[in-house]
Amino acid sequence: MNEEEDLAVLIYKSSKTAKARAAAAAAAAAKEKERNAPSEARQPTSTRKRCSDHISDTSAKAVIRIPTSKRGRRSLLVEHEGRKSVPKNVARKKYRYECSADGCTNNVVQGGVCMRHGAKVTQCSSEGCTNIVINRGVCVKHGANVKQCSSEGCTNNAKKGVVCKRHGAEAKPKKCSSEGCANIVVKGGVCVKHGAKVKRCSSEGCTNKAQQGGVCMRHGAKVNPKKCSSEGCTNIVINRGVCIKHGAKLKRCSSEGCTNQARKGGVCIRHGAKVKQTKCSSEGCTNNAQNGGVCIRHGAKVKVKRCSSEGCIHYSINGGVCFKHGAKVKRCSSEGCTNKAQQGGVCMRHGAKVNPKKCSSDGCTNIVINRGVCIKHGAKVKRCSSEGCTNQARKGGVCIRHGAQHKRCSSEGCMYQSKKGGVCIRHGAKAKVYNSEGCTNQARHGG
To answer: What pLDDT band is residue 410 in, cutting at 50, 70 and 90?
Structure first.
């Protein structure tokens, strides 16, 4: 900018000097003419007009015209002492106005500031409504006309290219201004991680984001999640108006061959994503909180989705159905094995090492059945439906004694019950042996 001003001053001084020289030359010529002319022919004459004409002619030759094109301005710089500058009267590039608050990059709304720093905006004229006016003095809720998506039957607002996000409008979210951060801006040009302030839950000691009524969902905010737009589907929308089952796209784990959902750092939990989970607030409990800050064992009520097949009471696994009615699960990768994969793509029979959760009762090493405890310490199991029978129901609501069919040994012609690895003890299933010296009987209780 200093160079531009210097060149403008130079041009101005040059033009002034040229005018002065032209005026002096005109005056000298007039005097010389008067001296040479006869005395009787001399008459008082005004040189003002002639002078001004001469000056205009001379100054027209002396004044440098400033070209408007970029190429012309460059040639002008070369002619005048090679100074790299532009004249002051050249049109400058127009920039959008930014908020005058220190460090704020938002657009000015009113009075040189953005809405965040005090710009007053017109509110909806409907009684009791505080929404911003869109057009005709009202907000969208009270009848403001907005452009609708051009897709047939869609009532969403058009975002870009006369369609909504669901039907292909690609809206690029603004990224956080912190160097190397790819998170989406929340407030003030930064994400939550880099200082964007969000409203926190008003409950004492709670740091969750307020959802409704100044509180989070844990402390009573009722939020109705949007349902999938596919007919008859009650799943929650993930993106583009649909659930995962009907085409919502998720970011997959970047590890080669892994199809799990990426959690953090581009990888899934299995490949190292560390996801912070809230623990149960009950003293001494390490279970994950499910609802109301507590786990299921300490009173969290969790609604379990049942299989959609008529008359079936099993839990839904995926696709709205249970295993029995077609839910697809990852099978063991070993050839010919149909067991469910537990770890590393294989089942327990083919090497998956799964550490079962132990009963939470002090000193008990039994496996948890439900609610964090074993059967001995209060886990509730389904009993046989036969009158007077207290055995555990195995299949079809009855125990083995009353008709439940258990898995048989896979050895040809063997009718014994399968114990481990698809075979009975007689055909190779390894059972725990009594730890007394020299005894080969199967351990029953207490080793």
So the answer is: confident
For the chain, count helices (H), then strands (E): 3, 0
Three-class secondary structure of residue 194 per DSSP: coil
Cross-strand pairs, 173: none
Q: Average pLDDT, stretch 215-237?
A: 82
Within 8 A by CB and 6+ apart from 259, the residues are: 252, 253
Which has the closest alpha carbon to 301: 310, 293, 311, 309?
293
> What is the residue whose two structure tokens read 């710009």?
119
Cα 118 from Cα 5, distance rounded (Å): 37
Is pTM beyond 0.70 here? Answer: no
Residues 6+ apart with CB under 8 A from 355: none
Q: Is 52 helix (H, G, I), strand (E, B) or coil?
A: helix
Q: Tokens 């005894």, residue?
A: 439
- Of 170, 169, 192, 197, nearest in space to 181 by CA: 192
d(C-alpha 296, C-alpha 343), whole Å: 25
Cα–Cα dist 2/276, whole Å? 56
Give the CA distances from residue 184 to residues 117, 358, 394, in Å, rounded to whole numbers and listed in that order. Answer: 21, 42, 51
Would you call 173 helix, strand, or coil by DSSP?
A: coil
Q: What is the pLDDT of residues 173-213, one digit of tens each?
A: 788 888 888 888 888 888 888 888 888 888 888 888 888 87
Amino acid making up residue 71: R
Tokens encoding 339: 């067991």
Contact call for residues 297 and 371 (beta carbons, < 8 A): yes
DSSP letter string, 234-288: -SBP-BTTB-TTTT---PBP-STT--SBP-BTTB-TTTT-----PBPSSTT--SB
With the CA atoms of 390, 295, 263 and 193 taken in that order, what torsion angle do they form, in degrees rounded to the nearest 10? 180
User: Considering only CA atoms, which of 426, 389, 392 is closest in space to residue 406?
Assistant: 392
40 falls in which pLDDT band (50, 70, 90)?
very low
Percent of the chain exceeding pLDDT 70 equals: 79
Q: How many CB atoms lie within 10 A of CB 173?
A: 7
Owner of token pair 């439940």: 404
Q: What is the C-alpha R_g of the chain?
A: 43
User: How far apart (Å, rounded) are the C-alpha atoms in residues 403 and 395?
Assistant: 8
